[in-house]
Amino acid sequence: MIARVAGTLIEKSVSHIVVDAQGIGYRIFISLSTFYELPEPGENITLHTHTNVKQDAIHLFGFYTIEEKKMFEMMIGISGIGPKLAINILSGMAATDLMEAISHGNLSKLVGIPGVGRKMAERMILELKDKLTKFAPDTAGKKMDVQTDATDFLKEDALSALVNLGYKSNHVRNVLDQVIENIEDSEFTLDVLLKKALKQLSG
Fold first, then answer.
1. Is 193 in contact with 199 (CB distance < 8 Å)?
2. Alpha carbon of 161 to those of 2, 28, 43, 185: distances in Å?
3. I need a surface site. Which of 92, 103, 117, 155 has the fewest CB within 10 A?
4. pTM score > 0.90 for this model?
5. Do 77 and 115 fall within a single domain?
6. Is there a domain that residue 106 lies in?
7. Same domain as 130, residue 183
8. Are residues 58 and 71 in the same domain?
9. Which residues have CB under 8 Å from 119's CB, separation 6+?
10. 127 lies in some domain
């Protein structure tokens, strides 16, 4: 799983970009919300990414904020919403606004997004409302603080590294959650996170 891509922006369009990361060009599909935040070609860029593996292709979807990535991953877990539709939905409404609309059961606002009908909007509210409450209690519709963003960022990097070593994704997530819960702020680096997680994983 590729959780983050950092490099030089080579090409950009409203639907996808190409990023050169150490000589490898990654094509990354994006929403309009992310497009509006992009620098000009030739400048450096860092995006949170989701890797979608299909039978005949591997696609990368990129996000300027961690909120947008999490909304995308929640939406593709709903029957009838694939990655391309999820990106289209995020192009029609910013992630924080989408969180707020779902959390408050605002059906009319959701139906106003291109590609979202009444039944799909109802399904989104039904399946995501409780998840959003757990994801960001009392803060739906607001940006998460910097510490939360950094925690998620390091967790995704650690998860990617440990899965590449052969550990099971679900088990690694549980171990990382335990480590993060008990780790001191002054120790919170990727190296420390990996060392502590590996110590638990190796028994």
1. no
2. 9, 21, 27, 21
3. 117
4. no
5. yes
6. yes
7. no
8. no
9. none
10. yes
- DSSP string computed for 82-94: -HHHHHHHHHHS-
Rounded percentage of the chain residues whose pLDDT exceeds 70: 87
Instruction: Report the domain count for the chain.
Output: 3
pLDDT digits (tens, 9 = 90+) for 17-53: 999 999 999 999 999 989 999 999 999 999 999 999 8
Q: Which of 80, 78, 79, 97 is nearest to 31 (CA)?
A: 97
Whether residue 178 is contained in a domain is answered as yes
Contact present, 98 and 75 (Cβ < 8 Å): no
Cβ(41)–Cβ(78) under 8 Å?
no
Residue type, 44: N
CB-CB contact of 89 with 115 (8 Å): yes
The domain that contains 164 carries what CATH number?
A: 1.10.8
Nearest to 78 by CA among 134, 133, 127, 125: 127
List pLDDT tens digits, range 86-134: 999 999 888 888 998 998 889 988 998 888 999 999 999 999 988 886 6
Structural domain includes residue 141: no
Strand stretches in 40-85, DSSP E: 44-53, 58-63
